Fold these 3 entries.
Entry 1:
Amino acid sequence: MKNKGPFVDISLVIIFSTAATFLFSYIAYVILQNKYPAFLPLWNTWDAQHYVEIAKNWYTSSTVEERNLQIVFFPLYPLLIKIVAFFAGSYVAAGLWVSNLAFAGAAIYIYKLARLDYDEDDSWRALVYLAIFPTAYFLHAIYTESLFLFLTIASFYYARRSNWALSGAFGLLAAATRITGIVLIPALIVEYLAQRDYKIRETKKDVLWIGLTVAGVLFYLGINYITFGDPFKFLEIQKEHWSKKLDFPFNGFLLTLSSMQSKKPELAMRTGWFEIFFVVLGLALSIYALLKVRVSYGILALLSWLIMTSTWWWQSIPRYVLVIFPIFLSLSILGRNRAVNFIITFSSILLYALFLIQLVRFRWAF
């Protein structure tokens, strides 16, 4: 990127990574399944089906079992799908539009945020590492990853520009997209204080804009209350149906490790070793962000990591790590070394292809 217009290059990354992901997944399906698939159903799998159903019927499905499954999903993403479906004519197509437009937003803002502190090469690497991260195909699928990533990065970008009203507004939307949006509050408070050299006396009323983030969580809790009469019903459902209950990360590690012994090699690799690897990777890059990138970024990363791993059983960690945006800034700094850059790039692309093939085979792909 040598001063030829960075957004031309950013657009290339957005367009090519999106098109390549859809094309590769289609070709992989044809080769592996020996038949030609319909494009939209290929992406309406796993959690995507829940988001599409919520977009169609909100949280009012006819059966209690369906409502129980749906209540653990936050409302903003399916609400946007419903709005876009009015124009797209298809809820599945609308989901893909929402996700990929959000991916474009995340790509633009990760570059813009990086440019506040680093040169074009560093910012470019952060963008590329995001686009080729092993689970980045979820940024194109009917999942919340791209929307949450876009909103979180935008919230921090405007915080860095001291536009606290916009930062708070994006924080609100992020907290209405995923539970980890709540960690924006302490992270943004640290950022606010850092811009004032941690002199509390210089705090002004504009700090209150950060509190907007709470409204996103309250909106979700209100949906729980209206649907079930209990604002924290989702915690019960997470525990009973999704096997998610709070526990120390080390206990999650022990259970994940021990459960691998009774599984076949393929399942042990997918639901064991990859979970552990991405837990370690996420922690290492989060600590690096705290020490070498920016304190507020590190706070966000470490608190996000803690929420993701504080369960008695680890699941979907490779996907959850994807939305911790400071890790891409950490990788960008490490990637200044050409050998490290090659290792990151080559390894990411290989794993991206491997995991995407799993997805189109309708196998567990995080």
Note: The two ends are 33 Å apart (CA to CA).
Entry 2:
Amino acid sequence: LEYSVTFGHISAKGRAGLTDRMMDEDFLQTDANINPGNSGGPLLNLDGEVVGVNSMIRGVGTGICFAIPSNLAREVADQLVETGKFRRSWLGVGLAELRGDSPFARRFPNLTNGVAITGVMAGGPAERAQLASEDIVLAVDGRSVASITQLRREVTRKRPGSDVKL
């Protein structure tokens, strides 16, 4: 099935929680049938513009596939060309929403904004800053965060190694 082309639509943006590791995830979800071995291929819109890089399928034939957004792929490519390596700021935490049906939403019903820390990676920046499971992050450098996606965007856009006020 090399060099095949399929079609579909993007059914969600900002998908996370797809792996069992605490990592930065911001996938596009698509029902375009990405075949095994097609990871790294382009996800195109109807005008033939690249909107993502196919990266993962959730079970063969399920119609649930994921792509890295093209703006992130461009950021990585530009940094690789400029410096020969890619560096990104990170906290080293697992996160949960305070909205919806999460245990944290039930524990903190009066909080409408913020993100709960569910775990701290050993040796990571969050551990060095003494963050702990069940801490609630309300803002990054004074900018309110209401979702995991917002927190991730605020942190990853900082210069690696710089201080961040949570």
Note: Helices lie at 70-83, 103-107, 125-128, 148-156.
Entry 3:
Amino acid sequence: MNWELFGICCYVIGMVYVGYVVSKKIKTDDDYFLAGRSLGPFLGTFSIFATWFGAESCIGTSGNVLRVGISGTHADPFGYALCIMLMAMFFAKVLWDKQITTLPDLFRKRFSPSAEKLAALIMIPSSLVWAGAQIRAFGQIIHVTSDFNVNVAISVAALVVIIYTMFGGLLADAYNDLIQGVAIIIGLIILFVVLVMGLGGPEAAWQMVKPESLDFFKTEETSWMARWEMWLVPILGSLMSQELVSRVSASKSAKVAVHSAWRASFIYLIVGFFPVAIGLLGHAYHPNLSESDSIMPLLAKQHLNVFLYVIFVGALVAAILSTVDSTLLAVSALATHNLLYPHLPNLSEKRKVLIARVGVLLSGAVAYGITFSSDSVTEMVETASSLGGPTILVMVCFALFTKIGNHVSALVAMSTSLVVWFTSHFVIEAEAPVIWTVLSCLGSYLLTVPFVSKVEEAVLTASPQDN
């Protein structure tokens, strides 16, 4: 009997059961997407941590360190930990005070319904790619622990994740995140200790680490702009993601939102060092491994007994499920709450929840298709972070902290930056598309300010509702 696969199945069934139980408490779309704004300190902290600590944090980071050393840790754990810190420092209280369901709600209040819809359309692809990365990582775990080939394993993973997410919404996600966060920490500690002891103890293990792997500032003849780009992608790209904003909005109070983000960032930073250490030790065990993203599950399978391996695989599954369900919920929230519901004003709350669950189903199907677009989990996550996130961050800063510009400025800036990102990323393959995207968004917004008053006056004059 395959006890590892059996353990994964039991773990997933348990998570689905939690979702089913919590689903009985869901009466409105606010319950579904924001847990009734009821998250306390523990649920809030671990929900942020577990949502962010996903496939790239475990599998992707250890694989990156195995390939290039700790210079490959610009995103994890440092970039994303700093991202959460910035949320706690500058944005959590202000966003909570706005009492929004999704970030585009802020665009509707500050700019216009058109800006709201464009923001939602910009944000949705990012979450879909991120979900695809998590599903791929889940599939790799199933592949390592069973006889399924990679494609079949990814398909099974997608089905499990979609079913799991549809039931309980954010409240079930938060309860599971608490369980999953603890499982992640325990699983990583177990594997790290076993690997160190397998090499003869801490001192012997340290001697096995390749010295060149410890060069944090090692570069591959890249320019300063490219190096800045590596750091800015996780920070600028994820700071205003719906996944993070929803945790802030779902907190009981602004104080809980701020403190939860601070605690989550420190936990993320500390726990994030374990995948880095495992990647550094990977050379001692598999110096010629071709599929570097497989190093963590492979080491666990080879060096843990059945009981400990089941615990560890459960931790990896926890890390992935806690991230992917959040991304699918985020896509459903953006698509239904901001794009669909405004055109269906008479929907009952029961019907809204049903549509939200269908939105999760469709989002999962699209994410499943995206899963096959890349072989690298980390590459997919970094693409997701750079897609739309920097633009949204610039616009949120204008919306929250200034009265400069209006909906014309917002529409021009978002449209311009989207074109610049696509062109720099795919057409000319610029080395720093995120930096150019931010500069184009900022510049185009400010350039419209001298003219927006006249443009808005002309638009309002021509509007039928003024007749």
Note: The first helix runs from residue 3 to 23.
